[in-house]
Amino acid sequence: MNASPTHEQALDLYYYLRLNRSLEELLARLFRQDKIGGGLYGSRGQEAISVGAAYALGPDDWMAPMIRNIGALLVRGFKPRDILTQHMARVTAPTQGKDGTSHFGDLGARHVIAPISMLGDLIPVMTGAAMAGRYLGQKIVALTWIGDGGSSTGAFHEGLNFAAVQKAPLVLVIENNQWAYSTPVSHQAALRDLVDRARAYGIEGHVIDGNDVIEVWDTARGAVERAREGGGPILIEAKTMRMTGHAQHDAAEYVPREMFDYWKARDPIERYEKRLTASGLWNEKIKAELDARVERELAEDLAFAEDSPFPPPELAEQGVYCEGCHTIQAQWRRPKEEVMPPKSSVTARWTVRDFGDVREAEPLTKSDQG
Amino acid sequence: MTYLEAIRSALLEEMDRDPAVVLLGEDIGVYGGAFKVTAGLLERFGWERVIDAPISETAIVGAAAGMSYLGLRPVAEMQFIDFIACAFNQVTNYVAKSHYLRGAPVPMVIRGPAGGGVHGGAFHSANPEMYFVHTPGLKVVYPATAYDAKGLLKSAIRDNNPVLFFEHKLLYRRIKEELPAEEYLVPLGKAAIRRPGRDLTIVTYAAMVHASLEAAAKLAGEGIEVEIVDLRTLLPLDRETILESVRRTNKLLVVHEDTRTGGIAGEIAALVSEAAFDELDGPIRRVTSLDTPVPFSPPLEAHFLPNAERIAAAARDLAKY
Question: How many interchain CB pairs under 8 A, A with B?
Answer without folding.
Answer: 194
